[in-house]
Amino acid sequence: MASPVPLKEKRLLDVRISELPSWVLMRDFTPMGIAGAFRRGYDRYYNKYVNVRKGSVAGLSMVLAAYVVFSYCLSYKELKHERLRKYH
Amino acid sequence: MNENLFTSFSTPTLMGLPIIIMIIAFPALLYPTSNRLISNRIRTLQQYLINLILKQMMAIHSPKGRTWSLMLMSLIIFIASTNLLGLLPHTFTPTTQLSINLGLAIPLWAGAVILGFRYKFKTSVSHFLPQGTPILLIPMLIIIETISLFIQPMALAVRLTANITAGHLLMHLIGAATLALFSISTSTALITFIILLLLTMLEFAVALIQAYVFTLLVSLYLHDNT
């Protein structure tokens, strides 16, 4: 189904599922592109939660909570052995 | 339990890639920059704290020593934030690794010493011999002073490593003890838990104090040599 907007410029939520693989392949995977993606993600989070008139502690604590979860995933292999099980 | 105790200090890897570079760079994300004079709350708070520390720390230096302000402020912010982030559960603290602390201590100490030897040679060499020593003691004292000079970077690095590692290890052990005692006798577990709470408060203080001590000593070495 041809849509009036070209595929490359659509945002993720506007892409149809059938078009998803070609959409993913069209994204910019060069180092500059990946750096740009990280920068855009950072700017989005910063402008929504931190750079506001009455920012709260939630802006910082969400980042720290995500960091804790990330570190948990990294150390899961060693933490697996500390469960209370009969057979590890 | 023996192996579990030290696995929290091993270098984190993700599918074989060392993530430690990302973990060291992570605190930089928490300090946003801006062109504006007055920014959001978190920036205002950070500016206030940094100004406070800066004025307190650089007051004793001459203008030549004050050129090191940026370096020393970055140092104290890095060490304080890595130590505080290490108090979150399951996180990895880079300052527990001796390699990183040596990498911080040796260049800074060497920079201060070389600066002193280059611009104020007589004053720097005269530090090797305190005033009013008996003549017979002079050779021994010079050797002792040289050793004490060369031990400064080692002491800086090992002090930071040992303090943070010991704190984390103690928290692990007491936490494991509390958990094990919980099924045996709940009141003892309660006492152990209170000990754990007190230790955590101590660790918060130690995290900040260690950063302060490290930076203060570097600035003292600088003051001697400028």
Automatic annotation (TrEMBL), chain A:
The domain of life for this entry's organism is: Eukaryota
The name of this protein is ATP synthase subunit f, mitochondrial
Species for this entry? Echinops telfairi
From TrEMBL, chain B:
Tell me where it resides. Answer: Mitochondrion inner membrane
What SUPFAM superfamilies does the entry give? F1F0 ATP synthase subunit A
Asked whether the keyword ATP-binding is assigned, the reply is no
Q: Which GO MF terms does the UniProt record name?
A: proton-transporting ATP synthase activity, rotational mechanism
- Principal place of residence: mitochondrion
**Ranges that cross the membrane:** 12-31, 67-88, 100-121, 133-151, 171-197, 204-222
Topology versus the membrane: Multi-pass membrane protein
Q: Which UniProt keywords apply?
A: ATP synthesis, CF(0), Hydrogen ion transport, Ion transport, Membrane, Mitochondrion, Mitochondrion inner membrane, Transmembrane, Transmembrane helix, Transport
Which CDD domains does the entry link to?
ATP-synt_Fo_a_6
What's the short name of a Pfam family annotated to this entry?
ATP-synt_A
Q: Which family does it belong to?
A: Belongs to the ATPase A chain family.
Q: How does it assemble?
A: Component of the ATP synthase complex composed at least of ATP5F1A/subunit alpha, ATP5F1B/subunit beta, ATP5MC1/subunit c (homooctomer), MT-ATP6/subunit a, MT-ATP8/subunit 8, ATP5ME/subunit e, ATP5MF/subunit f, ATP5MG/subunit g, ATP5MK/subunit k, ATP5MJ/subunit j, ATP5F1C/subunit gamma, ATP5F1D/subunit delta, ATP5F1E/subunit epsilon, ATP5PF/subunit F6, ATP5PB/subunit b, ATP5PD/subunit d, ATP5PO/subunit OSCP.
Q: What is this protein called?
A: ATP synthase subunit a
Q: What is the native source organism of this protein?
A: Echinops telfairi (Lesser hedgehog tenrec)
